Amino acid sequence: MKNGREHYENTYGAELLNLREQAEQREHELLSPWAAFSDRTQGRDIWEAPCDIRPEYQRDRDRILHCKAFRRLKGKTQVFLAPEGDHYRTRMTHTLEVAQNARTIARALRLNEDLTEAIALGHDLGHTPFGHAGERALARVCLGGFEHQLQSLRVVERLEKDGAGLNLTKEVRDGILHHQTAGTPHTLEGRIVQLSDKIAYINHDIDDAVRGHIITEDDIPEELSSILGRSPRERLNTLIHDIVMQSFGRGEIRMSEEVHTAMRELRSFMFRSVYTNPTAKGEEKKAEAMIEQLYYYYAGHLELLPEEYCRMIKQRQEPDYRVVCDFVAGMTDRYAVQRYREIMIPDAWDVY
Q1: Which one of 119, 126, 317, 334 is least enclosed by Cβ atoms within 10 Å?
Q2: Do 239 and 199 form a contact (C-beta atoms < 8 A)?
Q3: CA quadruple 159, 165, 168, 173: dihedral positive or negative?
Q4: pLDDT > 70: what percent of the chain?
Q5: Using an 8 Å Cβ cutoff, are 194 and 96 in contact?
Q6: Do residues 101 and 199 make contact, with C-beta atoms less than 8 angstroms apart?
Q7: Of 46, 180, 210, 201, whose CA–CA distance to 119 is shortest?
Q8: 193: closest CA among 329, 78, 269, 96?
Q9: In this structure, are residues 243 and 253 in contact, taking their beta carbons and an 8 Å threshold?
Q10: Contact assessment for residue 179 and residue 185, using Cβ atoms and an 8 Å cutoff
Q11: H or E stretch at 302
């Protein structure tokens, strides 16, 4: 039986085989001169033969979308721990909203949409269970600390595919590593994701906080609403349009001073009103304690780690503290609670 490539060549002709090259040519015809072109990538750490259909950044996007760490994002907290309701954001829905905002901006500016989406889909792969509460806990107990952007890079470089990693291009890994405010992405596409991350979480966290009766739209200072808008839709429209209008025809991604200042002040309002609100965050100390105890337990019982993590210690000579951190950071909220109950609560008491 002929393989897929032979069938394709015999059916359509060899002249149509390399659709990737045609896609790369279209990039040069359609994209801005400041775009990151797929055929000019700095490449992968391990060379691979190019795909005959997909440009390199599209391959990266697909690899991230199909990896295990991406699927686990659906079971990880964004802001609210175990909310009562089906419509609160998870780490996955946050990621998808970042990707959508970023793609809209990239398309409007004629930048590389595949690269933008790949960075956006991968930027939070290393996030812990229970959101930033889990991140704080691991930062305290793990030797060398813990930062989710570094862990996201570790996921794609050393943890996925049983330790082989996803072998992503350098541009995608750069965008993942530098998506935090303090980072400086080397591509305009990475810079778009950096801003889109803030735009997404500020707006959807307001929406979730209103849904959870933590704040109301009227609580947002009038001087900010008058600039940014009075609903999630209006704020997204303002912020995305501002980036596009301020960046169009320039080799940089920027915002107007007025809108950027208003966005920063809205973020400060959210820290005061939601991110440190006892009603919204009252359970976080429990979550932090749970993550700490799970870390210490597995650090003292390495033999109970799953087989692939034991191999990382024995065969790859990875530090045991880092491998334990990898295991705990990769847990979903539900799995962390399940493991905690099995480890810490005697069976006879589990009925209570």
Answers
A1: 317
A2: yes
A3: positive
A4: 92
A5: no
A6: yes
A7: 180
A8: 96
A9: yes
A10: yes
A11: none
72-120 residue pLDDT tens: 999 998 887 766 667 889 999 999 999 999 999 999 999 999 999 999 9
> Residue 90's beta-bridge partner residues?
77
pLDDT at 348 (0 to 100): 64
Distance CA 286, CA 289 (A): 5
Integer-rounded Cα radius of gyration of the chain: 22
What is each CA distance from 258 to 90, 203, 223, 240, 263, in whole angstroms? 31, 18, 11, 14, 9
Predicted confidence (pLDDT) at residue 1 exceeds the cutoff of 50 = no
Residue entry with tokens 């334990």: 324
User: Is the distance from CB of 265 to CB of 235 less than 8 angstroms?
Assistant: no
Q: For residue 180, what are its two tokens?
A: 């935090």
Tokens read off for 82: 């175990």
Report whether 131 contacts 280 (CB < 8 A): no
Residue 76 makes CB contacts below 8 A (sequence gap 6+) with 90, 91, 92, 127, 128, 129, 130, 131, 332, 333
The pTM score is: 0.93
